[in-house]
Write a structure and sequence with these properties.
heterodimer; A: 221 residues; mainly alpha; B: 101 residues
């Protein structure tokens, strides 16, 4: 692929491919242990493409459909403002492209795309397509490996789980410039810590991020 | 509900939330909605980082992950807010402190 933006997306996502792949293995192992067949486990990663939602699904599988759907709805709500922001970033595009951009709208690829759109990239759609492909292949192949051959790697044991919050910290860093950004970031830290006390894990991120962003709406620049 | 139906339902909920603003082109929202969208990414990434680093097991307590957070902040300051600076210094701090804890 000659498109330089696509190549940049591939380069920037190598780390995500590896980290997400390791978590895919963990998901595959847990899903099979929870009673899903191998093919249903892989299908989940192919059509859901959301680590948080899939881990919630597996964790709550034994409790029935309602708790799973409530938890995954809580997790999914944060995608709504992400979707609106991404629509702004990519601008007018054919419907097929927009539907494809939504398919792998994850925290990681959204963050990378937002970052390069701020610093300047020639073709933001090609960039996100590359990042999506990397994340998607890592997640699906990792899941298949985990489901088929069992745990080759324990992400928590290897400390890989710490890389995701560091990624998000790194994605936030260039965005925090003005006084309002600092207030929102501080509000997000406080809201996230409070959320861990009072909310089930599936709702913590959505509620904390929404609360902090709402606080930012009322701050004068 | 069978496992397969449940997975399909989760996929529909997830995709619907992702596609809602992408399915139909709209003018960029202004006013309070526009300001909310401007600051939402900062709020989202900081919340994700805080929950992952400061409260990785759902309860805020001092853990080796705090070293990663501190390292990440130092890395961001030293390397001019570079993504890879944050990740590299944060990860190195995590592993070094982990050796002693």
């Amino acid at each position: 692929m000659a498109n330089p933006s696509f190549r940049q997306g591939i380069r920037d996502s190598i780390f995500i491919l590896l980290a997400v792949g390791a978590f895919g293995v963990a998901f595959g192992v847990l899903a099979v242990e929870a009673g899903l067949s191998i093919w249903v486990t892989v299908l989940a990663s192919v059509i859901i493409v959301s680590g948080a939602a899939q881990f919630a699904l597996v964790g709550l599988l034994a409790t029935g459909a309602a708790p799973v759907l409530v938890a995954t709805t809580g997790l999914a709500l944060r995608h709504i403002p992400m979707s609106a922001k991404l629509a702004q970033i990519i601008g007018p595009q054919p419907l097929r492209t927009r539907l494809r951009m939504a398919w792998v709208l994850t925290d990681e690829t959204f963050g990378l795309t937002l970052r390069v759109s701020a610093t300047g990239v020639e073709d933001v759609v090609a960039y996100k397509t590359a990042a999506d492909l990397m994340l998607y292949s890592g997640w699906v192949v990792g899941t298949a490996l985990g489901a088929a051959v069992g745990s080759a790697i324990d992400p928590e044991q290897a400390g890989i789980d710490v890389l995701f919050p560091l990624l998000f910290l790194g994605l936030a860093a260039p965005l925090v410039r003005a006084r309002r950004d600092w207030i929102v970031a501080t509000a997000a830290v406080v809201a996230a810590l409070v959320a861990t006390y009072v909310l089930p894990s599936a709702w913590q991120v959505t509620v904390a991020a929404t609360t902090a962003a709402l606080a930012g709406v009322f701050v004068r620049e | 509900m069978s496992d397969l139906a449940l997975i399909l339902a989760v996929a529909i909920v997830t995709y619907a939330s992702r596609v809602i603003f992408l399915a139909r082109p709209r003018t960029s929202p202004g006013g309070k909605v526009g300001r909310f969208l401007e600051v939402f990414p900062v709020a989202l990434f900081v919340a994700l980082a805080t929950i992952g680093l400061a409260a990785p097991d759902g309860q805020p307590e001092v853990t080796v992950s705090m070293a990663a957070a501190a390292g990440g902040i130092v890395g961001g300051a030293v390397f001019r807010r570079s993504l890879w600076g944050v990740i590299a210094v944060g990860a190195v701090s995590f592993y070094i402190v982990g050796l002693f804890v």
